[in-house]
């Protein structure tokens, strides 16, 4: 590859700095495709190409492109030949740390945070006044605790909308478990709500902020109410079934005269004991979930409702799992004499749990 580049540059020395219709140089293309050897040879030939900006692509340099794609090896190559290249920003004012967070490139993000000059990037604002921490607060499915924990990160800086990072994550349109975790991370590290968040701070509204807009953000979408109503019906059904199963136990009761009259016939069997415990667990969890849904119906604040809603969802999931185990052990108790059939029944019931696991994992990831 080195020989080919040498031949091309000898015949056409200006070729290395020529750009395509988007303003991309050869180094830009090497960066996006992750061609490390090509990037190295181009930089050896003329390191100034690292400073070429793509005028029709947000003024991105090759380092910006490599960061967006997460090509850390090429990032290292560029910074080796051009150590100050990290200072350059895109046309909207974003640096490479902004981009690593925005495009969720974990390896590039970790690499940048370890550099000695990261302090110059960590609180740098883009054209909208957003620091990398603001971008992290608004970016779903990205692990950036090291940025929140960084001693040089200003957790309470405000952007041009007077929003702190805590405001940004708190008023996202979609509430999630991840959003709640980021809010806790920020609060733990000293983040506070900005003037944009008068409901938390208890202060007067800024003149440029409409109260109706803020209330709309805090209001509860009708879809959430409908989902909660559906879940409450499911929880009520589980409660009803679990309650009924507690009194129509497997094996029935002892009807003979004597000290054991009225007691469960199979009470000494281990499977029966598991049945009783799991049936009780299903009953209690589903009843608690109904209570949380009932209480949540009185909330007018979206965040409060979502906390109650998530807790109720977890309780319903536990109740479902417990009900399946109760059904499985209840049948096993009365089928113990037909061990083969009992085992088949247990295996079939067990298929529910992988479904539960992967569904919950996907929903809460």
From TrEMBL:
Signal peptide: none annotated. This is Ankyrin repeat family protein. One of its GO terms (cellular component) is membrane. It is found in: Membrane. Pfam families: Ank_2, PGG. It comes from the Eukaryota. Residues 224-334 form the PGG domain. Its main location: membrane. Keywords: ANK repeat, Membrane, Repeat, Transmembrane, Transmembrane helix. The keyword Transmembrane helix applies. It is a multi-pass membrane protein. InterPro entries: Ankyrin_rpt, Ankyrin_rpt-contain_sf, PGG_dom. It comes from Abeliophyllum distichum. The chain crosses the membrane at residues 232-250, 270-296, 308-335, 341-360.
